[in-house]
Design a protein that fits this description.
6-stranded mixed sheet, 38% helix, 9-stranded mixed sheet, Rossmann fold, Ribosomal Protein S5, domain 2, 4 domains, Heat Shock Protein 90
Amino acid sequence: MPTETFEFQVEARQLLQMMIHSIYSNKDVFLRELISNASDALDKLRLEALRDDTLDVDVSDLHIDIETDAEARTLTVRDNGIGMSHDEVVQLIGTIANSGTAKFLQELKQAKDEATAEGLIGQFGVGFYAAFMVADKVTLVTRRAGQSEGTRWSSTGEGTYTVEPVEDAPQGTAVTLHLKPVDQEDQLFDYTSRWKIREIVKRYSDFITWPVRMAAEAPAEQKEKEEGDGEEAKAAPEPETLNSMKALWARSRDEVSDEEYHELYKHISHDWTDPLETLRMQAEGTFEYQALLFLPSRAPQDLFARDHKRGVQLYVKRVFIMDHCEALLPEYLRFVKGVVDAQDLSLNVSREILQQDRQIQLMHRRLVKKVLSTVKEMMTQRPENYATFWREFGRVVKEGLLSDHENRDAILRIASFATTHDQEKPTTLQQYVERMKEGQEHIYFMTGESRTAIENSPHMEAFRDKGYEVLLLTDPVDEVWVETVPEFEGKELRSIAKGEADLDEEETEEAKAEREKRQEDFAGLLSWMTERLGEQVKEVRLSSRLTVSPACIVSDTDDVTPALRNMYRAMGQELPEAKRILELNPGHPLVEGLRKAQAERPDDADLAGTAELLHGMALLAEGGELSDPARFTKLMAERLERAL
């Protein structure tokens, strides 16, 4: 057959130029694309040889060769795979030229911007054309396994391309790039440089199934002999294999040592310590992927930094695609490191941008469940590992209670909290429920800056006396998630610093009568103080949570706590102020004395100052801030002076 010349269609030519100049953010990926295509060709040949007994091919040494010629400025990627026939070259390599179907042209014309056009390119699989980013001319020579005649395809990537027969073409495909001049500013590197080739293969194609080889560099003296006076040259050195081919996630657990897993973890995480846990996943069926995830043994210093890079490495058929794929794991699992290798994904032509499709969502869902189930397994089978994990990452995992409603219950079950039950050992909600006192209906908790501050809070007094266990929540995120998680196993989560503290579930008639009598005795004082402190508090009432302190401040059941309001303020969001409730301990001498004094001297101005002091002391006892510290100090000084 004579040489055939084809002309690119106008639309396709524009599309090709756009891809060459703007789609790929890193020109190095041209080699990734060519090696990936070669690897696919080798896979297809092995499969074809198994299916067709009559196919006379040698599959004993399937490999990919990279050849460079610095003087001629050429780079060749060669494989001994399935190869292509003349018709396949026109159909496959001429994808752009032959993609001028009515549907494609219509969609292209409807694409109003470059980003939309990029998405269209991805539907037509033209990664081969990435070669034109670095080459002025590309020549492809190929011969299909089982056929005698080969085909040469050649183009400068501009107006035309040619296709012609070749008599002596070896089986497989060889793509030769006539490289553009080196231009560092345009990120056009010297792609005949051996170290550059090694770098690209190591980064993008290290785990390709087949060996990627490059001829070993002959020593200077060897070259001299070969070029000298006919003296017999030594045998050529063995070619250098550039890739490890060690995709640990694709090998069975029995074939891989813990040391190899740890080495991979250190390589991808840049952490010098061994991982705490190694997680393996393999999904088969309509959508296949493999995952190898690691839970670190310590939190990185930038875990809470805004610019913290998260996400696992993404591969497609062992070809590296993305370093930090955020789409596969939620932000609250940003500490998880590892590799996910899918058999097929909806990527655009540059393989750099994931399309949001059900495959990504499916992997995301399964990976999250795998991580959470592994942590749950650690709780029961490796408690020391779990303790380390929760100490390092518990604060982050609890963020999922706010964002991941689907897995909220699973997160609650792997969470553990400090508690009044044990000074050292944290507890899970399940353990708390199992220890609940008879008649106890709620899971009690209190938030605060530290364990000491919470334990010394007046709010704890009655709960301590009655032996009720209280969760001590001191992480900033605790202030937020407790507002959104209503219950656990049917038990309501209730703050001991909000609403009424109803601890007398089975009140006797005698106790009820005594309470009503006490309420009647203090009615005058409560009404008077509510009026006097009306600018600071919503209500003054008697407390059932105090046994030692004279007073405490509580929030109404549905109100935002001061700590949470401060968090929103720090983020630039102002919440409306809500007055709180002052509770008095009717059994305290100070409160009883104030009641009697107010009944006897209702017009005594000093009593109003005492009421202010009582409110201020309650604020300070919970770690709050006084609205007027100077006035509080003045009133306190006056009272102390009189006492001397």
